[in-house]
Design goal:
This protein is mostly beta strands and 248 residues long. The chain is 0% helix and 58% strand. The protein has no helices and 16 strands. Strands 4-1-8-7 form a four-stranded antiparallel beta sheet, with no helix packed on it. The chain has a four-stranded antiparallel beta sheet with strand order 3-2-5-6, with no helix packed on it.
Amino acid sequence: MPSYEGILSWILCQSPRSNHNIPGVPELDVVTLRWNGEQVARGEMEQGQTWTLDLTRPLTAAATVEVVVRPNEEGGVEDVIGTVRLSEADLGTGIPGTDFHVAAFDDAGAQYELTYKVRRIDDAPGPVPTPDPAPADGILSWIFCESPRSNHNIPGVPELDVVTLRWNGEQVARGEMEQGQTWTLDVTRPLTAPATVEVVVRPNEEGGVEDVIGTVRLDTSLAGDAFRTARFDDAGARYELTYKVRAR
């Protein structure tokens, strides 16, 4: 009989509940995730931050995950801003990029996105064969925003893009970026075959539409110590992605 696992991949803070307006003091939320009432993750988050969770739990029955937020300031009160229910009904197709789900929560100024998925595990008798190791690793090092696509021209409101990176169709990073910002990625994946990485940009404003502004192809022929930089310029969005391939 097949069994299943629920996986909490990462959480993005688009806007924290904290709103103390104290100059020089970051506005932080204490974010807690509870799996069927049990705390499985807890940490501080600020606007634009993506927290990689990589939490895996067996799904012997449907599970409820609560996202709990408390402003990290005097008098801050914990509040459940949203829940997701994980079950075998959330199982994907097995095609990269289609297996994950994104739940968006918007509650009293707190705006968060939780990315999760459900994976099937087939019970098989005997030992599981060890796969041949990959000859190299592909590494996404950092991405630089020279100019965002967002161009709302609203005084006092930063022009932000929501930037997503997809490795062979699977989302591996997501966060907000503004002009002049460098985002350290440190995403490493084994290169058992050539991989395609897409850089996807959506202006973080009403009516913003996602668009692939460029791709890079990683394969073992690029192995070496040198970093490589791919430059993308599409309809006002100018980004640079730095990456390399490292032999094992």
